[in-house]
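Why does residue order matter? Because the sequence determines the fold. Keep that principle in mind as you read this record.
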Amino acid sequence: MPTNWTLDPDRCFDPDVTQRFLARELYQTVKDLPIVSPHGHVDPALLADPEARFGSPVDLLITPDHYIFRMLYSQGIKLEELGIPPQDGAPVETDHRRIWQRFADYFYLFRGTPSGLWLADELVNVFGVEEKLTSTSAQRVYEHLEARLKQPDFSPRELFARFNIEVLCTTDPATSRLETHRALRKQGWEGKVRPTFRPDAVTDLSAPGWQENIRLLGEVGGEEIGSYKKFVRTLEERRAFFNLMGATATDQAVLVPYTDTLEPNEVEAVFQRALRGGATQEDTHRFNAHMLMEMARMSLDDRLVMQIHAGAFRNHNEPFYRRFGRDMGADIPIVTDFTRNLLPLLNKYGNDPRLTLILFTLDESTYARELAPLAGHYPALKLGPPWWFHDSVNGMIRYLDQVSETAGLYNLAGFNDDTRAFCSIPARHDVWRRVTCNWLAGRLARGLIDEEGAHEMALDCAVRLAKHAYRLP
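Structure:
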């Protein structure tokens, strides 16, 4: 017999009766607020084409999501069996029903994980699945999803409206001409989709294909880039274009948030070595540090909010990386030093109110020791929400407990979903709203805040902090 699938209405709330009651009350005031998504990785082409569809259930939920297949891979399931092609051209499974069956056979692996929570929410609340996903129900659930995905009401644009998304920010390389964003504007579609300037492919000398990326940057900038001076001028012009197209933020991913300023002759020499393919590891380390300083300087002029995501050791599994490429679930957190590494940048720009710098970390040990004290002092600093491995119920609680007493709530940047999985957006925001309401309810029950303050803080956590931090109208 099919097992009825319902979600606990009190999920994420404390078992204590008083706290749970208060959490319910707070949650009711924010659960239906519009979604503000100031940072994420949804492909804007999904929304630029009015006829776009998600494809099959496998295309939607499995093959694009490294959260899903990294867990399956950890249990010995080959990526080829999930329809993910290796770079050597080896054969892969192409029957999506068989891939879905394999996923359902191992769906129990996601019990108690953030992915499991999001997936359950998506399947039940977005697609109306009524029986638990198991080996037995797999094909019935597949057919249900397949039928829904063909319906007009389940197109990306229709779901955008149904999800009540007020604004969605994408992440776009510095070399992008933002053609999909232009198309959205030309069509006059009511949904608000904004680009975000991502310069990593040209500012990080270790980026794959860096020289080709510089050539492309020159192409879109209308001038061949043969010097560092031209490189910087082109970046400034590209940022201005992104700003004109509605961008309010930039984003950079770094292994360590080291910052430093090179003398003009030094940086030119490093840039020339890189153009010739002769940059050393030390060159890369120092140039990347210099470019973080340059991005902060540019933000003073164009007021684009600067984001730094630090501490991900990318592509840790080298044989796996050689076979499947980058960003395939083999990224691992490292210990990160913010206090010393950011000192040059903060000494130069951290007291300037024109700069907003939002920091993200995978090193939770820095929350109370470094990040909260830094954000609790420097006017330019805000703390991004729990990121990636810590975007979870327990991760959010640890974050709020460790940063709020020193940084306060209003030095935080609210929540962003940081996702490529479009249909998980409402689930991710719902978890944040539930956890923050429950956390505030605990403070209210202990008499640490009053009822009026709790309700205001719930609204701030849900929407207002993010809008303020990212300068979204």
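The mean pLDDT is 97.
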